[in-house]
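hi!! sorry for the late reply, been swamped w classes. u asked for the two structures so here they r. pasted raw, havent cleaned anything up. first the sequence of the first protein and right below it the tokens
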Amino acid sequence: MTRMNSGRLAALIALAGVAGMAQAHTGHGTHGLMDGLLHPLGADHLLAMLAVGVWSVVALPAARIWRGPACFVVALLLGALCGVAGLGMPLVEQGIALSVVLFGVLLVLASRGGTLAAPGLVLVAAAAALHGLAHGAEAPVGDFAAYAAGFLGTTITLHIAGVLTALSLQRWLADHGRLAFQGVGAALGISGLVLLGQLAA
């Protein structure tokens, strides 16, 4: 039963990656809080947010689990402010999709006992900045505060979901937790590659 649950989670992650929502950051018009709430629900952002929560549980000490999500949220807001200011960089979409792949790799390594907490937090911050640039580039004129409150609220919710999911897997799977997290990491990596392929098509 527990193996089935972990398999279903990995399959769900893979399906999200191929759901055709790679256009989460395509420059559509935004108008405020509701658009901010909905904007992070594209596959690329959603998978990255969940991955940060799951990775934080696996890679960080129990007393520091929330450092991963906190690091992401701060860098996300800073990146969004840069985007609003007109700063940007090429291939932001590709970088966002690649971050999903790298989060999957980090999760696999962490589940095998790799001590990559510090480099992982650097990657979390870098990925967050890319997501923030994309958010900021689409911010509505004169209503950034409401828009930012929306995408930050959804981001934090997804982080919490990732953390709670990982804690539940640890509790339910006991000795098989490592294999389960390796499967989730592999599913994330494959999903990120699918997103990259969609952008290249």
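now the second protein. again sequence first, tokens right under
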Amino acid sequence: MKRKNICILTLSAMLLLSSSVYAQQNEEEGIMLINEEDGIMLINEEEGIMPINDENNEEVKTAKISIDGEILEDIQVFNNENDIIMVPVRAVAEKLGFEVEWHNDTKTVILNQLPVYVTFSIGENGYTIAKTAPMPLEEAPILVDGTTYAPISLFSDLLEYDVNIDNDIIDIKTNN
């Protein structure tokens, strides 16, 4: 059953990708690798599509993040299987001045920069700001190798930062 689900996920991903691809199964980890122009992508049922190290051991990045024109180093950004830009929450939020709390027991993240208080949980597409009802964004946050990723709309739509995407640079403006 797991192998069938992986095959279905792989075929779906291949339809979404416009470049030529091929897949192979890694029996030890139960994952599929797709080699395309941008490098090697990891596909699994829990986290979707993620860039991983290419053959030169360099991280594959689909974009870089800058805040007010300053590039954040060593941050991996990727498009998931639905072509939604997913960004590492802690790295971006802390650079924007938020305190970031992680509650491992509930897999919940809290972003705090009073009066702004945002909470969300891994795998749940419901983001709360202050005491509002949870609001959905394009995707639920995910956990990849100990890093929480959320859609860029967390910062543009929910936190109302001016986000511009130009080629491979995602620029977040703080208006300071």
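hope this helps!! also noticed smth abt the second:
The chain has a mean pLDDT of 75.
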